[in-house]
Amino acid sequence: MTAGATSASRPAIEELLANVPRKETPDLSGAFPRLGEARIRTLEALGERRPVTRGEVLIREGEPEDTFYVVLSGRVAVVEGLGCPDQRLVRVHGPGRFLGELGVLSGQVAFFASVVVDPGEVLAVPAERLRALAIADPAFGDEILHAYLVRRALALGEGIGFRIVGSRYSAGTRKLREFAARNRLPHRFVDLETDPSAERLLRELGLGPGDTPIVLFRNRLLRNPSTSELAAVFGLCDPGDAERICDLVVVGAGPAGLAAAVYGASEGLDTTLVDAVAAGGQAGRTSRIENYLGFPAGISGGELAERAVLQVEKFGARRTMPVEAVGLERRDGDLVVRLADGGELAARSVIVATGVRVRRLPVPRLEEFEDSCVHYAATPVEARQCVGDPVVVVGGGNSAGQAAVFLAEHAAEVRMVVREASLDEYMSRYLADRIAHDPRIEVHLHSEVRELEGERGRLEAVVVEDRTTGERQPLPARELMVFIGGDPGTSWLPDSMAVDAGGYIVTGPGAQPRTEPGETAERTPLLLETSWPGVFAAGDVRSGSVARVASAVGDGAMAVRLVHQQLSTAR
Length: 571
What we know:
Helix content: 25-40%
Radius of gyration: 25 Å
Low-confidence stretches: 1-8
Number of strands: 26
Strand content: 25-35%
Largest sheet: 7 strands, mixed
Number of helices: 15
């Protein structure tokens, strides 16, 4: 039984198994494929056949998924909260199907249990052998990866997994929800404001609304946990040896940082990737990227980041999130990145890929609504909060446009407030045309938000002003989505690092290190090298960069090539 399933819970488990339907869960979009005999024979050489009995738990919630199981005979149920009072059947699998989730590939813990319904036989393959086979046999690797990615997407969409209980108007609750969403952790939100089961659940736990937010996972109850605590619970941290001096530390896990980590590790550099929140950066806040090469149907920023993280781990880079870099110094010939938790990372080279920090709307009373009704992303989490409500989206770039299109599927009304005189001034033409022809989206050009209206932290309207006529009008709004650019994430860097007038890092020949009178620089900085030798910048944080995912990925790859060059000359 699961770690949380005592002998008292076994009757409940048996009751669940007795009510498992005979029919398998349908194969949804390739999430639950059936492996052929030839594929199973290949896997048999890497694992072992094992008989299984009714009620045997193959995968336990909260524990690492270290084994890849294929059902050879019998049936297996996938269950949320196995052995707990509110356990729930999630899937049913029969012969030929394989079990597990992304944790088999990524090292995350299991979010669901797998328990045998009908006795039979399984094929058990150690996860490290499966990963080696997936690299050696790309077609099989793609099939496994696709299935696990779709399973994760289904879990996110269905709201299954651990529970976050709290008020939608609570800053602490919002922080936990955003962390879970940005890291694509399967969960569901139990809202004190709208969900009748919330108070009953709290009473059963002996808690009150003032004790929230809480996180419930398996038999664990976490009261107002930090994001670092959640990361540890779900296996997101891999700090490695704190005394180790690695070849490369990449700070920031947006597209540039992810690309740098993938290329660095795959080319033999001992690489560590850190980020203050989650993988994806600004792109991870985007509901759909449609102009990225190779994805004609588009891809969400979160899924793109999720795929990249699997590549990072595939090539052996260490990944630690959430941990914020707060300083950079040179010590004993090495570069040292200081972390907010008091830790340090020493390296021979550093790539700064911290991108930009979201820019807040300069309007009175923003703080009053920011914890509950003002958002800087458009993911399924925000979409669920917008259902049936009027929404205002502020901004004239691609992020704002993609948010408006995405939220139009969920909100009662979507209005865009755009400073520019035309939609396509800063927005891609295909996206501007789509919005112009979408009757669900109302666009207010050459306009700016001047006031926020509402009471007790609950937004009711935004007042916008036409910059041409000076006329003001209120727009109904329960949620306000802000996409007005950002400021470079460079506040943690030393003052001596050269930046341009906007605070973006200067690289290449224009980033000559500061010297004392009469001194000369040792060498001219390489193309993406900063004024600090051995420190490179990639992506949106770099002066002169193009704010597109593809260019950020190119920056990350190029920076690694230059790191190799710098390290070879330093030896």
